[in-house]
Description:
Chemotaxis protein chec, 11 helices
Amino acid sequence: MAEVLSQNEIDALLQALSSGEVDVQEIKEVESSKKVKKYDFMNPQKIAKDQLRTLEIIHENFGRLFQTFLSGYLRAPIKISILTVDQFAYSEFSNAVSNPAFLSIIDFTPLNGQILMDISTNVVYSMIDRLLGGDGTKEQEVRTFTEIELTLLKGMIDKSMTLFKEAWSNVIDLKPKLDKIEVNPQFAQIVPHNETIALITMNLEVGSVEGMINICIPYLVIEPILDKLSTRFWFSTTQKELSENELLIIKKRMLDAKIPVKVELGSTYVRVKDILNLQEGDVIRLDTNTEEKAKVRIGSNIKFLGNVGVTKKKMAIKITNVAKDGDD
């Protein structure tokens, strides 16, 4: 963004122009000269914007899955949305984490290394309250977590590991596993301080309590699959040929599928008051006659025509025609 001049600076510049101290042509040459872009060697940008966009798509999917999981697990309305996806040095992230914190350290097998998921403590207190039978609305003071609370939370995070697997399934077959939970950020050093990380920040609402989820993914973890983290790869559709055995399995399942079959003798309109006054022996006149063939519906579509009859003292229908598109 261009520097904003004060009124005194503007007046001084106009005076210099009018007196000839400053040449307009020199100002134009400076403006047209090549701009120098600053580069921070302490925080190198290793992840391309296209790859960050793919990470955003992956975690939008994870957010939806995690939202559904928490809604059922906590019996509460949950809302999760992506706020930002960017890259930083790990020190910038770790220095911003409060103490005590709720940090889940997750092994990202078969990728080498771990990722870190940070959930705001005010939301975690609300989750604990709901898990213990409360409504999760009472404001609690900042404190350390008890062993019982950590056990409850560990069980919840353990059950959510499959959501990471599902969210990343288009890129890699992950086998994520919760390694441990840390409450002190100093003990959650998963990479060196100057290492580049991708940081996905999501907004989390548990009932009326609002906080954030930060997912920290080190560059070293996703480096082997960076070529797959592109929107072109993500949206490309490659059709996999089915083997003969897979085709036979699909055919067998289709043949074993049960579908409703109904025979339609006819239809009519009857007023509600007439239905209320129906007695045994009354006749309802349909819009078909005895010479017309009955319609056989498979699901909601008419597929066959036939004659109604009786076989072994049971109502039956004999298929006589196959209904085609355009038949009445």
